[in-house]
What does this fold into?
Amino acid sequence: MTALAHHHGCIVTAHHVDHGIRTESADDARTSRSIAAQLGVEFVLHELQVEPGPNLEARARAARKQALAPDALTGHTADDQAETLILRLLRGSGSGGLAAMTPGPTHPILGLRRSETEAVCAEIGIEPVRDGSNQVLDVWRNRVRHELLPLATNIAARDLTPILTRTADLLRDDDRFLDALAATIDATDAKAIAGADPVLARRALRCWLSVDGYPPDAASIERVLAVARGNGIACELSGGRRVERSNQRFRIISPDR
It folds into this structure.
């Protein structure tokens, strides 16, 4: 991605995040700096310390997101998109989650295959950094990449990545349409939520109750729906928050109150 941006005349700053998880991560940082120098672009190193333990991938992603600017470009490819759809399917996501990553300025090479990015590197004489943790099969994404997707491709007898990315595109369009309808509902109005189609009511509640773009789990949303329908006057949300109904209006009670 950095090489393509530089080739097209963009003013490029390459950012490398060292999570401090692997012993060889410092070597990767040095290689990344060398690649940036070879291309003639500015280089910025972000050194983090993500402790080993549960949900390591999610915690590393959150730390990386905090370290980088909101408009930072990432090099996710179509293969990453297909893997993301499968991972979210395994976690029980609805259409919003299955829409996976949204194409646009921050994902400029989402339409390219991983093999094409490797071909670009080979063409210009760059040896890319190969993250050894991508081979560790304790991580779900790695098992999807190395085991599940190849097996599914073998069963289907065709390349599934274009099919999965097209599915994500279709679901994203459906999701946008339903979100627009749900936006017409006042999520703090318990009577409006109770009277709305459950599909739109759930969407309105997810939007209202999201924190940093992350909605509560499905069970929490169902509990709020039950309160809207009169089955109680309050309920707990994941994360320690609470929703209370008074005079047919909802309000959120934070755990620190």
